[in-house]
Amino acid sequence: MNLLRFLPTGIELTYLVAVSLFIIGIKKLGSPATARLGNVWAAVGMLLAVVATLLQQQVLNYGQILLGLVIGSLVGAWMAYRVEMTAMPQMVGLLNGLGGAASVLIAGGEFWRSTLSGTPLAPAALISTLLGVLIGGVTFTGSLLAFAKLQGWVTGNPVILPLQRWLTAGLAVTTLGASIFLLTAPLNLAVFAGMLALSLLFGVLFVLPIGGADMPVVISLLNSFSGLAAAATGFIVLNDALVVSGALVGASGLILTQIMCKAMNRSLNNVLFGAFTATQSITAGAGGTVAGAIRRTDEGETAMMLAYARSVVIVPGYGMAVAQAQHSLRELADALEQRGVAVKYAIHPVAGRMPGHMNVLLAEANVPYTQLYDMEAINPELERTDVALVVGANDVVNPAARHDKNSPIYGMPILEVDKAQRTVVIKRGMSRGYAGVENELFYKDRTAMLFGSAREVIAQLLNEVKQLA
After folding, report:
1. Which chain regions cross the lipid bilayer (predicted)?
2. pLDDT tens-digit series, residues 408-419
3. I want to staple 394 with a disulfide (CB 3.0 to 4.6 A). Which of 18, 254, 284, 433 is the partner?
4. Is residue 268 located within the same domain as residue 310?
């Protein structure tokens, strides 16, 4: 017996190394301290997988492949360099969509090739092709719509069309019927094209009724969809590395989606089909008026409060991201630490507009990872905290989530900054958060409001702190 035939080839060994690097990279992405290194490990793994694929497959024109790699790399590098950190969610959504589009093109090309040759695809290949088109089509248009919502081109409010549930259900049934028909008539190009159109429409209807408050969950889920579409494509082109990497992305995306839902104390079904609808928001806004008066403060009083505190917990929110105040915030924290103040940052899982948004922004400002605390770790310490400084956060610090059963955010775990000895909230005004409800925190006796652009206010606070003896 020739045992050599059971040994893996160089290509297979390279794929094994690449997949191992993917797994190591995902593991390191679980901590802010190792996330950058995790990206590098995963990128090296992808480079190995691409090179091995080019050596394994019978590529008709290496010149065209090289040209595509160069163009794609240059465009990707330019996008990554030019994108602002506040627009990172939009970029992630767009890249998810491009991943879905790539799967659709490969699956569609394979089906087109089979119809031209008159040779039907094998049942397993046909099922993979249909899955690639269905999942990829939904991912493509759904991600583009999510991008448009985040970019402000389309309203971020939930949009419910007349009879939308019936329309969506009808699309799902029709698409399923078309898929079953193609299994019996695998050369019917017209039905395949119709199924593709339905999947693209389904992606729009999938994201349209989901509001801006749920965008972190939507981005995570669409990221998972792009991985599943890639895995289906791997079965089409018989590429092991693509199957495994797509499955890893799909699984990790689903896990992250579940983490986001848990952080909001909502089920995935509720996010997708019962999100913060317009009716809920209006009801909460009309009946959720908070009794009491706000207390305003100024930069001088706040600077003294911070400078003479023993401990300060900073809560960054999307308002900080919009104002690009993370660098000034780090300088303020450094000045406070020089005075002996213990400074920590409290990070809510769904703060910002995508998972990990606040961590990325603070890492950009070189905030030490050791100062970043998640919600479970920091909440027990807030009762012993002298000052909680909330910078542009809203719903994630609203105490109504603990007791107001009529509130759309009821049950959502929050950063309990209202338990600190003093709380200062930096905001442009009294506008409501994505949930559309008043924030009880703003009316608490121990809360003071400091109005203005976060970047300008924090810069003034820094100057005031430096002038104190």
Report:
1. 6-26, 38-56, 62-81, 93-112, 124-146, 166-183, 189-210, 217-236, 242-261
2. 788 888 999 999
3. 433
4. no
